[in-house]
Every structure is written in structure tokens, then in C-alpha cells.
Specification:
The chain is of the alpha/beta class and 145 residues long. It has one domain (9-27, 34-140): Thiolase/Chalcone synthase (Peroxisomal Thiolase, Chain A, domain 1). The chain has five helices and four strands, in the order H-E-H-H-H-E-H-E-E. It has helices at residues 9-25, 47-58, 65-70, 74-84, 99-112, and strands spanning 36-41, 90-93, 118-125, 133-140. The protein has a four-stranded mixed β-sheet, with helices on both faces. A hairpin with a 7-residue loop joins strand 3 and strand 4 (133-140). The longest helix is centred in the N-terminal third of the chain and has 17 residues, at 9-25. The relative contact order is 0.24. The model has no long low-confidence stretch (mean pLDDT 84).
């Protein structure tokens, strides 16, 4: 994915989010009047990039500029919002409890406060020596999980 290097964090976020949005809206995309927010939940964040940066610094190397951009999960969430024309808020959380419960609670706040009509909830985790795991669900339309 252009603008993101070394790690599968951003490409996996985009893949699950786009699969979810296509399932909900097809190729037409989100209707113009719908405010769709994004809540991205990850305890580890982009672990692969963080480990690469740490190892490079410890070895006295130079960090490439793209790592400064992608080191914040908001960058991939903003990329998604721009790519899909989403007009709601973008929030990234590191959960203190159950990731799904914390994410749904934040999504409910955004909807209940009137900041979003619906929320694309994305849960993603990277673990050493394991594949990145992610899931996305579109919450809205009056239905609560």
C-alpha cells in the first residue's frame, strides 16, 4: 500500500475495512448524507514498525521518514476516511478492557452525541511470530450490537 512500509498493520486495516464497507454499500460507496466515523482499536498498535524502529535506533541507524507517518494508527484511519469519503470522526483506542466492548462503547458515544450516524469499528492486533489478526464491523442504522 503506497505510503506504508515494512509492516502489514496498515494493509490489513485497509483490507478488513474495505471488505466491510463493500459488504454494506457495494461499489457505490457510502451515501453522501451519511456521517461514518472510524474507531480503530489496538492494544499493540503497529508492533512490527515499532520493533523495526527500535532495532534501527539501537544499531545506530537512520529511521526512514515514512515510519514517522505510519507510527500513529490515525494515519491509516485517515487514509481510509479520505479514500472512502467518510465524513465522521476518527478515533484510535488502546483498550483498557475487552477490545470489542471498549470499541463499541466509543462507537456508541460518537453516535449518541450526534457526531456520527454509523461507525466503522476495526479491531487489530499484531503479535510476535503470529499473523496479524483484524476484524471490522459497521455499527449504525439504529441497531446496537
Amino acid at each position: 500500500m503506497p505510503g506504508f512500509v515494512h509492516s502489514d498493520f496498515a494493509p490489513v486495516v485497509v483490507a478488513v475495512a474495505e471488505r466491510c464497507l463493500r459488504r454494506g454499500y457495494g461499489s457505490a460507496g457510502v451515501p453522501a448524507g451519511v456521517r461514518t466515523g472510524i474507531v480503530l482499536v489496538s492494544a499493540s498498535g503497529d508492533l512490527a514498525s515499532a520493533q523495526h524502529v527500535r532495532a534501527t535506533v539501537e544499531a545506530g541507524g537512520r529511521i526512514g521518514p515514512l515510519f514517522f507517518f505510519q507510527s500513529v494508527p490515525n494515519s491509516v484511519a485517515g487514509h481510509l476516511a479520505a479514500r472512502w469519503g467518510l465524513r465522521g470522526p476518527v478515533v484510535c483506542l488502546s483498550p483498557t478492557g475487552d477490545p470489542y466492548t471498549d470499541g463499541v462503547a466509543e462507537a456508541d458515544l460518537l453516535r449518541d452525541d450526534g457526531d456520527a450516524d454509523e461507525v466503522l469499528l476495526i479491531l487489530i492486533e499484531q503479535a510476535p511470530e503470529k499473523p496479524t489478526e483484524a476484524v471490522a464491523v459497521l455499527l449504525g442504522g439504529g441497531a446496537r450490537p
